[in-house]
């Protein structure tokens, strides 16, 4: 169900195998709010199973092993995450980066889920190319699966907040995603808290809006690489995860989410594919703030490295 403000539209894509029909259904939302709830995506049967695997992992992995897996882990009381790189599918599924034992035993299911996420993104990417009057494979042919792909599956856990705790209201700070597309899976119970700052709002002091949760839908959002590539025809929107304010007297339950960060092939050119002079002042300013220059010759890997090295400096008071 949507929250009151409900800024993110919902589409059902189950019947939209034709890229033209899919484009007509999804492009409007992704070129305005940059976020879209998608139903009928075909991953429904697998999502709850992935949440169970993630939940079991976060609950049972030892603190020492968690620290070893991610020594840079920030504020462990607010958020913890685990990134899974490419896993070769098959009976003897094989991770290309060693997996902790608790995940290794599910390698084949994890590989299957990663592939389903990748395949769904390929469908969307074909629709975007059609919408921009480009050859249908323009974006999708510049993405691939394999050990050298930069795409990752991320399990996220936001631990519960006990009654009366003094904590920063940000469970995850304001950011935009770096890649081409993100698929975000949320849970009905305890999953609330994701907010977006529509691109029409000022970066400092703008009005954040709750995305809400839509049952059985996954949330698609555009990342910085695709925003640059498409000359901001598709928008990479700031988002964050917040706690309710004031904090409820009985505390806040834990929250799990799962994200698939789809990345273009590292050496693919992200040269803007539309006339750069047609990009609005507002979009240029937003991109400049991220250190992104439309029209320049830059590869997906150079873009990713640059984005990883830079951070926003946004006020957290809004
Ligand atoms: O947990 C969420 O709902 C959002 C996570 C997110 O935006 C991210 O990891 O990039
Ligand atoms: Fe994100």
From TrEMBL:
Keywords: Iron, Metal-binding, Oxidoreductase
Entries under PROSITE patterns matching the protein: FE2OG_OXY
Pfam families, sorted: 2OG-FeII_Oxy, DIOX_N
Family, per entry: Belongs to the iron/ascorbate-dependent oxidoreductase family.
Lineage start: Eukaryota, Fungi, Dikarya, Basidiomycota, Pucciniomycotina
Keyword Oxidoreductase: yes
UniProt cross-references to Gene3D superfamilies, sorted A to Z: B-lactam Antibiotic, Isopenicillin N Synthase, Chain
Native source organism of the sequence: Rhodotorula taiwanensis
Limits of the Fe2OG dioxygenase domain: 148-264
GO MF term (any one): metal ion binding
Name of the protein in its database record: Fe2OG dioxygenase domain-containing protein
InterPro entries with a match to the protein in the record: DIOX_N (IPR026992), IPNS-like_FE2OG_OXY (IPR044861), IPNS-like_sf (IPR027443), Iron_ascorbate_oxido_reductase (IPR050231), Oxoglu/Fe-dep_dioxygenase_dom (IPR005123)
């Amino acid at each position: 169900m949507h929250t009151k403000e409900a800024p993110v539209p919902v589409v059902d894509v189950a019947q939209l195998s034709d890229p033209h029909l899919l484009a007509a259904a999804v492009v409007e939302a992704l070129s305005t709010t940059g976020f879209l709830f998608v139903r009928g995506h075909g991953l429904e049967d697998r999502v709850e199973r992935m949440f169970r695997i993630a939940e079991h992992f976060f609950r049972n992995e030892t603190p020492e092993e968690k620290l070893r897996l991610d020594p840079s882990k920030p504020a462990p009381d607010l958020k913890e995450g685990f990134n899974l790189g490419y896993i070769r599918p098959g009976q003897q599924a094989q991770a290309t980066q060693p997996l902790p034992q608790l995940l290794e035993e599910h390698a084949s299911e994890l590989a299957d889920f990663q592939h389903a996420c990748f395949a769904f993104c390929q469908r969307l990417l074909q629709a975007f190319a059609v919408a921009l009057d480009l050859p249908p494979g323009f974006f999708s042919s510049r993405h691939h699966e394999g050990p050298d792909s930069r795409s990752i599956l991320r399990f996220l856990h936001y631990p519960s907040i006990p009654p009366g705790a003094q904590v920063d209201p940000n469970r995850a700070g304001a950011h935009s995603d770096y890649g081409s597309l993100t698929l975000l899976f949320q849970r009905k119970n305890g999953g609330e808290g994701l907010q977006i700052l529509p691109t029409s709002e000022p970066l400092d002091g703008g009005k954040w809006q709750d995305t809400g949760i839509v049952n059985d839908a996954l949330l698609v959002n555009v990342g910085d690489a695709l925003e640059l590539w498409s000359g901001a025809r598709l928008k990479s929107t700031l988002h964050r995860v917040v706690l309710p304010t004031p904090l409820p007297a009985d505390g806040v339950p834990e929250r799990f989410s799962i994200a698939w960060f789809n990345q273009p092939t590292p050496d693919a050119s992200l040269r803007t594919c539309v006339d750069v002079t047609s990009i609005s002042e507002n979009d240029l300013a937003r991109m400049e703030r991220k250190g992104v220059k439309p029209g320049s010759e830059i590869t997906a890997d150079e873009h990713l490295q640059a984005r990883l090295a830079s951070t926003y400096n946004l006020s957290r008071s809004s």
